[in-house]
Amino acid sequence: MTTTESTTAQSFADLGLSASLLKTLSDIGYESPSPIQAECIPILLQGRDLIGQAQTGTGKTAAFALPLMEQIDVKLTKPQALVLTPTRELAIQVAEALQSYAKNLPGFHVLPIYGGQSYTIQLKQLSRGAHIIVGTPGRVMDHLERKTLNLDNLKTLVLDEADEMLRMGFIDDVEWILERTPATHQTALFSATMPEQIRRVAQKYLVEPREIKIKSATSTVEAIRQVYWQVSGMHKLDALTRILEVEKDFDAAIIFVRTKNATVELADKLAARGYAAAALNGDLNQQMRERVIDQLKSGALDIVIATDVAARGIDVPRVSHVVNYDIPYDTEAYVHRIGRTGRAGRTGNAILFVAPREIRMLRTIERATRSPIAPLTLPSRADVTNKRVADFKEKVAEVLNAEGLDFFSNIVSQISEEHDVGVEEVAAALCMLAQESKPLQIAGEDPAPARAYPAASDSRRPAAFGERDRKPREERSERPRFEDRGDKPRFEERSDKPRFEDRGERPRREERPTRSAPTGDMVRYRIDVGRDHGVQVKDIVGAIANEAGIESRFIGRIALYDESSTVELPAGMPKEADNALKRTRVRGVPINLRPDEGRPDGDDRGNFKKRKFGDR
Ligand code: ADP
Ligand code: MG
């Protein structure tokens, strides 16, 4: 067994992947492998067993998914690989990743199977034949027992997020499955941590595994102000522009994202908001790259959105800010990124966006760089307005000293006389005119301040949010089942087998026979699916009820617009529900739920459909 320190990025081509897969990666916008990918892919391609340990968000999925893709014989429509994941969300996520890597592999089929999903549908899909199965342990076990899943052709088994499976109590199920898979297959185990029990399972079932552990080296950072913003309640893009606008001493910024495509996307969006921004990625040839950097130096550009590779070694003294829009894979990348600011004796600022699931990476970075990273309070609308007003005043003050004001003073006097208004009013009107192209006040509202909602133990807590049902099964089965209502394929069908109850794969809801309109405070949210996506109200109700465990009767009015919709949900949504909804998709489109900030972009043609409760 060997343990490997994080190495500097190679290229995907060095790892032995096929040309067709390399093309796919380039299409997706992956520029270079992450450290865990660089280490694991060659080993897995050799067919060896592997234990891969690296933190969340370091790209473990592609580390096993890409070698899997190389193995699949599309002509053989039998499961050739099985990936076990702890939760249904992860099963779906991994299946989606696999599907995206199969872009240039016509006929490839991956099937996610998980608890809570209808057996009928799963059986149909299984019988159609899939090349890779991604599933939660309980449901996979069940299909193996029913002999509806046959693993005779299995070449590789992957245990993804093994520590999480242990934590959720699935380890016995995992062993049960491992015992029933063909003796000769490759096994890969991925985990963020390596508890003793996982190590024991690895020793028992893996054959001479190579062990790859990505450790982050420690290094010190120069005097750079480091802050982070925990992503919540607002789009990263909106947060970014607010922050940049209010940041003191802002001159120029390099913004780091993970993919080439993201560099272009973000550059376009920032340009549309009036920033002088451009993308810097590995698709640009040397000459174009140099041009972008020269423009940043000269001030023709203020913002460059870059991938790690493309930004290597950039030395532009006026870069006052580095924004880690996507968190880096490891501390080395972080240190390298923020080293692009604070150059030539100037002060630098490093801003890091951290999603809730990435908090651990934040702590690792703090430890490795031996410097605390302070939380950043998102500037409020008032903060932005104040800053804009201050800048505006400054501009006006400059003009006050300019020559040739007389001509304009004269016009002011004329307006004042002709309209019989004071000079102050005329000035106000002129201010209003002057700011038209860039309004001093920003539209919309601040995201609702984090509300204090009753703790889980508080009996006053509204029952709107489903918790795991801990009542014995007998009691539960008295209640109406979803199947009986025959209206919602997206709702869960409950298994008859008690084993699958309380697996903790998802929160359970209770359906009450009587429905009434929701009472209490409601908050309106905006979601990114609308009529253009072929979405209907019932799809939204289904998805929200299903994913966040909010009983459908607590879901308020839903208004469908062309490209988006609004939905009212009870105030004080617990974090888990909020997180679940952020990841929810309707008809394959991520809904991107966020508090509704009004409609600055004029999509107001929606006819407001009042939902009748109990009538979907
Ligand atoms: P982990 O399983 O280690 O938590 P994931 O596999 O979920 O991490 O990857 C995290 C994110 O990084 C995903 O959005 C994925 O698309 C992205 N990603 C992974 N590998 C690369 C790469 N080589 N280049 C760019 N983005 C990548
Ligand atoms: Mg993962």
Describe this entry's structure for a reader.
This protein is an alpha/beta fold. The chain folds into 4 domains: 12-213, 3-Layer(aba) Sandwich (Rossmann fold); 224-379, P-loop containing nucleotide triphosphate hydrolases (Rossmann fold), CATH 3.40.50.300; 383-396 and 414-441, no CATH class; 480-612, no CATH class. It contains 22 helices and 20 strands. The strands form 4 sheets. A 7-stranded parallel β-sheet has the order 3-4-2-5-6-1-7, sandwiched between helices. It has a 7-stranded parallel β-sheet with strand order 10-11-9-12-13-8-14, sandwiched between helices. It is globular, with a radius of gyration of 28 Å. Adenosine-5'-diphosphate (ADP) binds at residues 30, 33-34, 37, 54, 56-62, 258-259.
pLDDT below 50 for ≥5 consecutive residues: which ranges?
A: 1-9, 449-517, 599-616
State the shape. globular
| CATH fourth-tier homologous superfamily of the largest domain | P-loop containing nucleotide triphosphate hydrolases
The proportion of strand residues reads 5-15%
CATH architecture annotation of the largest domain: 3-Layer(aba) Sandwich
**Average pLDDT rating:** 80
Structural class: alpha/beta
- Main CATH class of the largest domain: Alpha Beta
User: Portion of residues in helices?
Assistant: 25-40%
CATH topology of the largest domain: Rossmann fold
Number of helices: 22
Number of domains: 4
Radius of gyration: 28 Å
Record field, number of beta strands: 20
